[in-house]
Amino acid sequence: MNKLVLTLAIGAAALTGGPAWSADQADQIIRGQYQAVLGDCAGCHTRAEGKPLAGGLPLETPFGALVPPNITPDRETGIGSWSEADFRSMMKSGIGHNGVRLYPAMPYPAYTRMNDRDISDLWAYLTTVQPVSNKVEANQLPFPLNIRLAMLGWNALNFTEASFQPDPSKPAEWNRGAYIVQGAGHCGTCHSPKSFLGADKDSEFLQGASLQGWFAPDITNNAQSGLGKWSEEDLVKYLKTGVNAHSIASGPMAEAIENSTSKMTDPDLKAVAVYLKSLGSDVDSAQPAKPDATRMTAGEAIYRDNCSACHGGDGAGSGALFPSLAGNSIVAQGSSETLARLVLAGSQAVHTADAPTTPAMPSLAWRLKDQEVADVLTYVRASWGNAAPAVSSGDVAAVRKELTQ
Amino acid sequence: MTKILPRKDVVIVGLGWTGSILAHELTDQGLDVVAIERGPWRDTATDFNIGYAQDELRYSIRRDLFLQPAVETMTVRNDPSQKALPMRDFGSFLPGNGVGGAGVHWNGHTWRFWDSDFQIKTNLTKKYGASRIADLQVEDWGVTGAEMEPYYDQFEYLAGISGKAGNIKGQLQEGGNPFEDPRSRDYPNPPMQMTYAPTLFAEVGRSIGLHPFPTPSANMSRAYVNPLGIAMGQCTYCGFCERFGCANYSKSSAQTTVLPVLMKKSNFEVRTDSEVLHVDLAPGGKSARGVTYVDTSGEEYFQPADLVLLCAYGLHNTRLMMLSGIGKIYDPGSGEGTVGRNYCYQTNAGVQVFFDDKNFNPFIAAGALGQTIDDYNGDAFDHGALDFVGGAGINCIPTNGRPIGTRPTLPGTPKWGSAWKKATVEGYKSTLGYSSQGSSYATRNNYLDLDPTYKDRFGRPLMRMTFDFPDNDIRMSNYVCDRMEEIAKALGGKQYAVSRRKKGWDSVPYQSTHNTGGAIMGTDPKKSAVNTFLQSWDVPNVFVIGASAFPQNAGKNPTGTVGALAFRAADAIRNQYLRNPGAPLVQA
């Protein structure tokens, strides 16, 4: 379908005296469209119900709001006046048209690993998108952070322009996975812990991080907190459909799946899985102390009354509808932020072609006090083989406060 | 000032079961479809939140999900000589409201009507002679059971029905209903786990030569993924089905079987809290131009469309036709006119058997969890020596043990006070109930038309319902009650009580929301409002889909047949109508 729309767009351009496309260029544009899928451009640059790539919703960063700009080829408000060289420079170094320095909310620290051909293809595609006039004031940071030149110093401290370095000792599939994860896929932008300056901590690559009120879990192969219990097939199924036996995607990952990973090719998903399963070790596998018995008893009672109808008395869940809580990777994280958020605010699963149901977890904020949420989460995190730390009412209160702001 | 909106290919009035099915099918066909729904948007996690979905006071007693009479009611009377008065509150039946319609808060009994139901007039005339049905106005549907089979199959797999086939391609199946028509394959899910009361009922029924089988249920016996890829959860047997939305994605409804896919389609849109006032006809009245509706701010809109589908509740479909001038309103005096003709209902009766030594744990329940005996339903038994036609399914389906509504007490118990309290404690766990759901056959004087006096909040005449139980149906119901007494005696409790159906339909106590007819299907445009594809004879770009199309009602719940008719209409629109839009599919 997307291919068809694209073909029509090219046809229309040809009729209206636009660039004369050759067959080779059509292939390049279609490849570039796939790069836009890998890079999830639409995830940030398209608003819900908005025109494609004409600018997104503000990203709330710890430093202030940044609004993803209009990247359609509109000359006035988009990137229509950019050259391909401008675009490549922006992707590789964060320095765009007219030398403007981007903030790393645009994940150029990851995109810098994309190769020239992929960037060129992506550019070719972006020039074919319907131009939309939509002026976006991207920089809404407070002074002095709003001075883009400050990024000169940030880059000096935190950023090195780089190319992807394949590991010749690994198979091609692993290298392809590494290239996607580190480059266009920019998984670390959410899943890697950040320094106080907001840069990825390379030493903790993909080990889980908090952002925008969600905890993006550890996606290394760590058996306790990461993907250690997932098979490669589990991982591919999750990225393709949003659902597998261990988890159902929600929150920002649901958006990433809907816009990006569900549209990736099966070989690329397999490559990503192979690579992620090769990362990390079980260095941090010390079991947390068992929570005290009174909290477990209270938590179990709350669980039976509020949770068991869907998630089952044994935490096994039900197929594509209710996630299993036993062995669930969200449950297993050190941080309980996402869990508390799910209980308080509820959540709706992602919609994909292969898993269209979009089941939802209802909000229970009106029904359960902070202590009750903490107790039930403590129970869930220490039952059915789960061994994640206890949750305090203060942890829950912090999430509730954030949700009500 | 009416705002004129951009044209759509299809406008659908009402987004319940039939509206959702038609919208899904026609958007698959590539058409641009808008549904206009009088009530609110409703979705499982937000509107049937597990934390309060089982609030009996809110949903069952105060009827939070239902149509309120201030929005639309109707006037009622028992016969044409009376002056009809408006129902100030719904009682005998409870129409739905909002997205999902009454399919949100049904129990989930999902039946197929039989070939002998569809070809009823031909069948009864052949077997018992024309004089047997001289007092009735029964009509053939114009379809056969075999023609309907694939559409029943489609609906049952969409909805994940739990049941046991009785007859697959002519081969009788042990444990199923031996009286059903042949089906092409078994139900998509096995029967639900039986609780004690229906298990005992079935054992006793079998011991006296009857043929009990598990009631086909839209409550999931196991996790299920339907052909649209939509997942449903296993029923938890909580006993909050009828009058409630299901919090566990375990009861089939538009929400749990169609909407997750439909709502994501770019060529579909729903406008909620918007009430259609009428269908607009082109000059000459031979084609529809679209519909006029009003939103909650009072703003009026005209939605032009090439095809108009009336998918509201059957009674409301009929009234919209009357208000729009689609077809001629039925006149019982002359027998002329088709819209409002053959209004039928359901002829029910019940038995309670009281025990001392049994505990039925009635709180472990589901809306359609039970056993049915069809030995005395429809034409499953010989009526040669009897003085009636029709019959009833005998159902032991203890749907709930809810604390306010489920208070069985022995006959003669005071209605309040300490003696009543004591009796409800004794009766709660140890009472077994079952009921007959009887056919309702059309007569000349049971019909719908517009009330000459009472108007709604927009100044439109209310619909007038003229109905009483026909003598034939009362005789049928008494006969089946006698059979139910035989079962009660065999059950051997300390006492039993039979509530028989009497003449003089009373609109106050709840009986059944199985109102059928008013825009019936058939092969004769003088006797039916729509053809056998549910296309209006008079305005061919209008289809009228729902139980309004039933020429009379069988002794079974109507939703399965409503769903099958919706799929059949969709098939006809996709594969016949769209080749030559606006033309009748059947030449009168």
Automatic annotation (TrEMBL), chain A:
Its cofactor is heme c. InterPro entries: Cyt_c-like_dom, Cyt_c-like_dom_sf, Cyt_C_IC, Cytochrome_c-type_DH, Membr-bd_ADH_cyt_c. Residues 12-130, 172-280, 294-384 form the Cytochrome c domain. Keywords: Cell membrane, Electron transport, Heme, Iron, Membrane, Metal-binding, Oxidoreductase, Repeat, Respiratory chain, Signal, Transport. Binds 3 heme c groups covalently per subunit. GO terms for molecular function: electron transfer activity; gluconate 2-dehydrogenase (acceptor) activity; heme binding; iron ion binding. Residues 1-22 form the signal peptide. The keyword Nucleotidyltransferase does not apply. Heme c 2 binds at C187, C190, H191. GO terms for cellular component: plasma membrane. PROSITE patterns: CYTC. It comes from the Bacteria. Its main location: membrane. It is an enzyme of class 1 (oxidoreductase). It is found in: Cell membrane. Heme c 1 binds at C41, C44, H45. Transmembrane segments: none annotated. Its EC number is 1.1.99.3. Pfam families: Cytochrom_C. Heme c 3 binds at C307, C310, H311. This is Gluconate 2-dehydrogenase (Acceptor). It comes from Mesorhizobium ciceri biovar biserrulae (strain HAMBI 2942 / LMG 23838 / WSM1271).
TrEMBL record, chain B:
Its EC number is 1.1.99.3. Keywords: FAD, Flavoprotein, Oxidoreductase. InterPro entries: FAD/NAD-bd_sf, GMC_OxRdtase_N, GMC_OxRtase_C. It comes from the Bacteria. The keyword Flavoprotein applies. One of its GO terms (molecular function) is gluconate 2-dehydrogenase (acceptor) activity. It is an enzyme of class 1 (oxidoreductase). Residues 444-566 form the Glucose-methanol-choline oxidoreductase C-terminal domain. The keyword Iron does not apply. Residues 232-344 form the Glucose-methanol-choline oxidoreductase N-terminal domain. Belongs to the GMC oxidoreductase family. This is Gluconate 2-dehydrogenase (Acceptor). It comes from Mesorhizobium ciceri biovar biserrulae (strain HAMBI 2942 / LMG 23838 / WSM1271).
